[in-house]
């Protein structure tokens, strides 16, 4: 499980984002100011830091400078949508990415995982019951044989992997498809994609053992 430090001075954002990231299987520590953030970083090992520019004491730039002077911990800045100066300054200080507020939580998680893969903070290979996903190369195989998936099928499969053991509602899955497609995707389309994925990865698509239907609630990858 990847460990993240969330540095943010807005208590509502801090609480809501921490809860959401916990649901996405991240371990999250929090800090609301520069001093607390630096103390946390000195005492703990983090895989990534989510860093707001404005803090109760100091600012995100000071935290980023301290991080990058002593380590290779990746940093993602949280910036206001119209604050071009903060974006440029953060990147010049060595930040690995930025995301503008307000943002969709799913987009933030996608950015986090992308940075972790790029920086070597997360295992590039996922596996389940003979199914293997090499996220670094975007290759899927079952029992050693390559499985060809469309871009949306691949994204959905990764979403199931990253949420193993959790029930995912159809609305959650539809939102994940919409994030990739950039257009409205209806409920019937989701049914088709789930069916196609099962046909490609299950030994018996009629009796799926990896992506299971939880009647009345959604789906779960065991």
Give a verbal description of the structure.
The chain has helices at residues 11-23, 34-43, 60-70, 84-92, 105-118, 151-162, 170-181, 187-201, and strands at 3-7, 27-31, 48-52, 75-80, 97-101, 125-128, 131-134, 139-142, 145-147, 167-168, 211-214, 218-221. With 222 residues, the chain is α/β, with parallel strands linked by helices. Helix 6 crosses helix 7. Helix 4 links the parallel strand 4 (75-80) and strand 5 (97-101). 43% of the residues lie in helices and 23% in strands. It has a 5-stranded parallel sheet, with helices on both faces. A 4-stranded antiparallel sheet has the order 6-7-8-9, with helices on one face. Strands 10-12-11 form a 3-stranded antiparallel sheet. It folds into 2 domains: 3-118, Rossmann fold (3-Layer(aba) Sandwich), CATH 3.40.50.2300; 125-221, Winged helix-like DNA-binding domain superfamily/Winged helix DNA-binding domain (Arc Repressor Mutant, subunit A). The two termini are 17 Å apart.
